[in-house]
Amino acid sequence: IELGMSYRSNAVYSWSLIGWKLMTLACITLVIPAAYNSTMSDVKRGPEEAAEKGLLIISRGTAILLLFVYLAFLWFQLKSHAFLYDRDHHQDEEHGSGSQSAASSQHEEQEEEPNMNLPSAALALLVVTVITSFCADYLIASIEETAERYHIPKTFIGLILLPIVANAAEHVTSIWMAMKNKMELTITICVGSSIQIAAFVVPLLVIVGWITGHELTLYFADFETICFFVSVLLVNTLIQDGKSNYMEGLLLVTLYLVIALAFWVS
User: Fold this and answer.
1) Angle formed by the axes of helices 222-239 and 246-265, to 10°?
2) For the domain bounded by 2-92+150-265, which CATH number is listed?
C-alpha cells in the first residue's frame, strides 16, 4: 500500500518474480499431500498404514526434489544469472546505450556506502542470532499462559501474532525500500523468507526426520493448506502484469485480515 501511495504505478522486473514462481511450486507440493490424504480418507482404500506409508513416500520424494530445486535457484540467483539481479544492468537496458552513463552515474549517487565491513557484519549477525534464539525460547514458552489468560486461540498466536513480531525487521525494510521505489528489492525481501521456509526448511526437516527415524511428512491440515494456497494464488494474480499500485496492496491486506479472522474463530 505504501508503495502505491508514493508512486502511481511501479514496474516489477519479471526476473525478480522467479523466486515467487518457486514459491508457487512449493505451494503445489504442499497441496498434493493434503489432496492425497483427503482422497485416501474418502475412498478408504486399504488399511490406514498403507495410506500413511504412501504419504511418507510422497513427502520424502518431494522433499528431495524441492531441496534440489532450491539449490538450483540459489545457483541461478548468485552465479549463473547473477547479472539479472544487477540494478545497473536493467537501467542500461531501459535507458538504452545513449543514456547508459547517465543512468549509471545517477545510480552511483543514490547508492549508499556500507557502514560495516564483512567481519563486523558477520559477528553482529552471530550475536543477534544467539540473542534471538534465547528470546524465541521464552516467547514460545509463554504462548500457553498467554492463550489461557487472554483467551486467544493458540493457532492465532502461532500463525498471526508471532510472524508479525518475528518478521518485524523484514516488514520495516520492505516498506522502506518501497518508499524508495526499489520494487525488485521489496519483492525479494517479501518472498525471501517464505521461500526459505517452504522450499528449504520444511523439506529439510522431512529429510532430517527420515534420517533420525521420525516420520515427518509434508501433510498439513486442510484448512491451513487452503489458506496458504489462496494467498499464493492472489499474489500471483496481482503481480502477473509486472506492475503494482496501492489498490493491489489493499487487496492483499484484506485477504490477510480475512485469514486472521478465520484463525481467530478456528
Assistant:
1) 180
2) 1.20.1420
